[in-house]
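Suppose you are handed a protein chain with no further information: no name, no annotation, nothing but its sequence. What can you learn? This example shows the usual starting point.
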Amino acid sequence: MSSTTKPATGILAGRVAIVTGGSRGIGAGIAQRLAAEGASIAIAARTLEPHPTLPGTLAETQERILQAGGRCLVIQADLAEPSHRARIVETTEAELGPVDILVNNAARAFYELAQGISDKRFRISLELNFIAPFDLMQRVIPGMRDRKRGWLLNISSTTAA
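A reasonable first move is to predict its three-dimensional structure. Written in structure tokens, the prediction is:
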């Protein structure tokens, strides 16, 4: 759902940003700050509804952005799924316009010894921490190059280290 309550102003007015991991923490904070500077924001994460143990949801981040007068599109997606990554970019461009800023913030870490990690957990970590950011960058860079502008930010908390 996308909404605008007032015309965008600020140094990022007219720009479009995707922020992964936008339901909580660093991602939610970056999304709110970009919106405060006038960017239209697409936030993507798995958590649309409240999680039993983790704070924050996409709906809560969107509500904060909308209350501050920003424009925010919510895209529930699992970044471990290639088709979801494609949908994030396609939906953002269809609803908000060409992507000017990509913030790869979503990540996953498992705290166990390397020899004990399961193949499934290893693959999830690889998908979320390496393949997904690279895939999303590959999807937005051509348009950024055509427009001769764009910003990529790959960031995460120590949780994903």
